[in-house]
UniProtKB/TrEMBL annotation:
Keywords: Hydrolase. SUPFAM superfamilies: Six-hairpin glycosidases. GO terms for biological process: carbohydrate metabolic process. The keyword Amino-acid biosynthesis does not apply. GO terms for molecular function: hydrolase activity. Coiled coil: none annotated. This is Glycoside hydrolase family 88 protein. It comes from Zobellia amurskyensis. It holds the Pfam family Glyco_hydro_88. Gene3D superfamilies: 1.50.10.10.
């Protein structure tokens, strides 16, 4: 009887481990499938009645992931596609000078500059950010304040603009970019970060509100923040005050996210309310997988619990990709927990998935 029990335990252990195993080539295969599908469907309408502008924040989030995939791909198709977008738009940021959403495309420009070292790719961003430093917005962060979004008073903004400032600091070596970003980021964090839950409110309107008895922390909004933290930290020098500041937030969020992952592997649209929001949401969850895996790959997060969460999360995200390469369960454009379905996608979901895959590939290839 003991022998039989031992054999059964061994069988299920091996079966479980094999089910959890991630194959590097399979990661690349599904990333290519998703990237190719998205490029073929870049002009679909998605959440809007018409396609997004090439410089819109939705596409900018896609480009972040696409640039990471381009670095892994076996040909220059994806780099050429991104360069074409930059050239067609004269390497300009989007329309609003102060609004974080319209800075986000600068992240793609920085990635391409690092590869090609062509100054025209960054000159317009440097010029615009120089203006912002000399003419900073003086509005308060309160939602009802006039021109309130001229500063980062909603949590998604922390993905859109701060990493661009960090890129410029890293590329140019000029401290002024980091100084400006650091002070603004601290102001937003003091305003929106819940020190008990270690999560960000989407904006001031959600502070003090409850949804079925739980505080409202939007899954995707926190996904934006968390991925942005990883990208900021990648640009900074360890042991500096700025690095330690961002690392502290990153570690606090990481620990909380580990607690909040659902048994299925995703994170709920309202992070504390998975009982009331059981439907998967793949854009925020993919960014959580990205950020967590980045932490493992950089020796910041340690232990099997994080690795198990990452594997479970990636397998869940990959299961939401259909046979054609479309990532499903992406919540449409919004600012709060809502609805998602297997037949709905968005370009930023693809960007998040590709970002996650880039770090997953590094992790499993190195094992």
């Amino acid at each position: 009887m003991k022998t039989i029990k031992l054999l059964l335990v061994t069988f299920f252990t091996i079966h479980f481990c094999n089910a959890q195993k991630i194959i590097p080539d399979e990661v690349k295969d599904i990333m290519k499938k998703v990237a190719d599908w998205q490029m073929d469907h870049i002009n679909d309408s998605y959440s809007n009645k018409k396609p997004h502008h090439p410089l819109h924040w939705t596409n900018a989030a896609l480009y972040v992931g696409m640039a990471k995939w381009a670095e892994m791909a076996d040909d220059d198709t994806y780099y050429n596609w991104l360069k074409g977008i930059g050239n067609q738009n004269n390497w300009l940021l989007h329309e609003r000078k102060y609004h974080a959403d319209d800075h986000a495309v600068g992240r793609m420009y920085a990635a391409l500059y690092r590869k090609y070292n062509q100054k025209e790719m960054l000159e317009p961003t440097i010029e615009q950010f120089s203006f912002l430093m000399h003419h900073p917005a003086n509005t308060k962060l309160n939602w009802a304040t006039p021109y309130h979004q001229d500063r980062w008073n909603w949590c998604d903004a922390l993905f859109m603009s701060p990493p661009v400032w960090a890129d410029l600091y890293n590329i140019t070596g000029e401290q002024k970019y980091l100084d400006f970003m650091f002070e603004e980021y601290k102001a937003t964090t003091e305003f929106l970060f819940d020190k008990e839950e270690h999560l960000y409110y989407r904006d001031e309107r959600f502070k003090g509100k409850l949804d079925k008895g739980t505080k409202i922390f939007w899954g995707r909004g926190n996904g934006w923040v968390y991925a942005g933290l990883a990208d900021i930290l990648s640009n900074l020098k360890p042991q500096t005050k700025e690095y330690e500041y961002f690392l502290d937030i990153y570690k606090k969020m990481s620990k909380k996210l580990l607690e909040l992952q659902t048994p299925e592997g995703h994170w709920a649209m309202s992070l504390l309310g998975q009982e009331f929001y059981p439907t998967p949401e793949s854009s925020g969850s993919s960014f959580f997988v990205y950020g967590l895996t980045w932490g493992i790959n950089n020796g910041i997060l340690k232990g099997n619990n994080y690795k198990k969460a990452i594997i479970k999360g990636w397998n869940a995200m990959a299961s939401y990709v259909d046979d054609n390469g479309m990532l499903g369960y992406v919540q449409p454009i919004g600012a709060a927990p809502g609805n998602a379905s297997p037949d709905k996608t968005e370009v930023y979901g693809t960007g998040a998935f590709l970002s996650a895959g880039s770090e997953i590939y590094k992790m499993v290839k190195g094992q």
